[in-house]
């Protein structure tokens, strides 16, 4: 008898926990380790940011392949293998002693990102539960929104107790012994549990058709600009706080607020926003990016920075739901892995360049204030591109 799998609720719950731990480990940890690694190894900031940039570039390059594999029914192998790769990468990171070693590690971690972070989980749910995928995406993002809240204080405590190398060993072990088995268990059973209606499938766009639609490129531009600004902020956030003279305790308070703000925004959407179109929701929440960046640039008091955290968190939380739901709405579900993977790959390459480009920009502008104002301007362009992207059928 074929294994039916754990069922919808258990699958979503397990994947949500996996997203929480993977995002905390793979995306948010780096910023907390920049200064400790710089002090311990004597490398400059551009060298360190270049490794993270390489990881994000590999994420972008391999994202399409991960989506195509999920379209072919290999979601369990992709997400389980990604968690294993992430754990091995973290253990290897803990042993680096030369820049080339750090860059090699981040090439591995970049592939792990493509196999674990949001996009593959969204694609798996869309393929397995095409009649319930949007609720599943919302649930994943509700839990995953706490990743930054979990990461920054936990990593700070581990750093204070054992230093950055042992911190990475602990994170690697968690990924190997907890997340990888969880993904393997959650994605047992058939890759397609409830198929869409045949008529719907015939209307779905292929990747070639999507690439010919102006809406594909406008959405890609929007999410590319957003990804660039978001990645630049997270990679430099702790040094930016230090440059402002904000005490570390206050900086952690602000960063810990971002996660609950993401979740609060998603809950608000669940309770009040379901009657709105995703296009309307997206236009409203995307405006939070330039507003929050400008506020961070121009403020140094804790109350103002907490407002920044709320605005940025709500926008960051809801844009994930918008992106995850809008692609199948615009282009259908049959080829969602390939279409979403192609769109994300372009955005992820821009995200990859962000940490290093911001490090270079700091060499020619007075400081982080000007960098953040540049990011605010990019946020305005993202809103304009999003609103111009109309459904292909319209």
Describe the structure.
With 394 residues, this protein is an all-alpha fold. It has a single domain, classed as Growth Hormone, Chain: A (Up-down Bundle). The chain is 82% helix and 0% strand. The chain has 16 helices and no strands. It has helices spanning 8-41, 45-71, 75-93, 99-116, 119-128, 133-144, 147-186, 198-203, 207-211, 214-244, 248-273, 278-286, 288-298, 302-331, 336-361, 368-388. The protein is globular and about 55 Å long. The N and C termini lie far apart (46 Å). The model is unreliable at 194-200 (pLDDT under 50).
Q: TL;DR?
A:
With 394 residues, this protein is mainly alpha-helical. It has helices at 8-41, 45-71, 75-93, 99-116, 119-128, 133-144, 147-186, 198-203, 207-211, 214-244, 248-273, 278-286, 288-298, 302-331, 336-361, 368-388.
